[in-house]
Amino acid sequence: MIGKKVEAAFNDQINAEMYSAYLYLAMAAQFDAMALEGFAGWMRAQAQEEMVHAMKLYDHIQERGGRVILQAIEAPPSEWDSPRVMFEDALAHEKVITQRINDLADLADQEKDRPAANFLQWFIDEQVEEEKSADDVVQKLKRVEKAPGMLYMLDRELGQRASTAPAAEGD
Ligand code: FEO
Fold first, then answer.
1. Which of 14, 36, 115, 162 is 20 to 30 Å from 147 by CA-CA measure?
2. Which ligand 1 atom is nearest residue 97's CA?
């Protein structure tokens, strides 16, 4: 049975993951508006992955006899100055999520909740990937700024992610 403190913190994390999905969907919408379909597809895939993360937490609470309580999802920004600023914001956001996951792992340890600590290991590993994938694109966008024609090549490259099965990526 899940304890009340861990249950509450996991419910908060469901909200943080759903906000992440909203944030990346807002970024997808701006990329769609800019006719950068590859970037938009990358962000859509990322949004779907965040919903998978939220559902993992949902299932963990349920499986351990807890109660999922959904909270209001904050509205994300709707405009960014450039693709680079968007991916820099995505990276900054992932760093916040990493800190939240680390705090959850600390709480699980304090509460001696071994199933939660074990479960969170997947998220700890995932956050390494999350930060890396956003940072990789930031680095590419920095190079593209020196040769703007490259933006469309990068758009094609990122669009390849959308053609893979995004919902399965979080498994
Ligand atoms: Fe659910 Fe992007 O971390």
1. 162
2. 3
